[in-house]
Amino acid sequence: MSLLSLPTCPLRPCTPVPTECPVLSGYTVEANVDAPGSNLLSFGCSTFKVTPTTNNAQQGGALCTGRADCAGFTTYRWGDQTWACPKFWLSNTVTQPPARAACLYRKIGA
């Protein structure tokens, strides 16, 4: 699996780990980026328990790929939880602190 990795230091505990953004077919990906204020309100963000085999990109893609109103999604990892937040709009992107471990996925052709 290909990963886009940048060094980070999570809030709890503060140990250097990479922000890993797995490559997902049909999407481009940017590490430490979000598009605030553009979550699809019909279902917001989904929370997943982190396991050794958790792939946030696949979980987020499953929420977004089949939806015409979904332009992409952001994933976050905090402690033992991850979030996948489908987005309807991606033009207001902002850099996130590396501690949030954010990955912004843009649907190709959206």
Largest sheet: 5 strands, antiparallel
Helix and strand content put the structural class at: mainly beta
> Tally of extended strands?
9
Give me the CATH fold name. Hepatocyte Growth Factor
Q: What is the overall pLDDT average?
A: 76
Characterize the quaternary organization of these chains.
single chain
The coarse overall form would be globular
What radius of gyration results from the CA coordinates? 13 Å
Beta content comes to 35-45%
Number of helices: 1
Query: What would CATH call the architecture?
Result: 3-Layer(bba) Sandwich
Give the N-terminus to C-terminus distance in angstroms.
Answer: 24 Å
Short key terms for the protein model shown above:
9 strands, 110 residues, mainly beta, two-stranded antiparallel sheet, single chain, 1 helix, disordered N terminus, Hepatocyte Growth Factor, five-stranded antiparallel β-sheet
Blueprint (SSEs and pairs):
Blueprint: E1 3-8, E2 17-22, E3 27-31, E4 33-34, E5 46-49, H1 56-64, E6 72-78, E7 81-87, E8 94-95, E9 103-107
Antiparallel strand pairs: 1-2, 3-9, 4-8, 5-7, 6-7, 6-9
Folded structure, characterized:
- The chain is mainly beta.
- It has a single domain, classed as Hepatocyte Growth Factor, CATH 3.50.4.
- The protein is built from 1 helix and 9 strands, in the order E-E-E-E-E-H-E-E-E-E.
- It has one helix at 56-64, and strands at 3-8, 17-22, 27-31, 33-34, 46-49, 72-78, 81-87, 94-95, 103-107.
- The strands form 3 sheets. A 5-stranded antiparallel beta sheet has the order 3-9-6-7-5, with helices on one face.
- The longest helix is centred in the middle third of the chain and has 9 residues, at 56-64.
- The radius of gyration is 13 Å and the shape is globular.
- The two termini are 24 Å apart.
- 30% of the residues are buried.
- Residues 1-17 have low confidence and may be disordered.
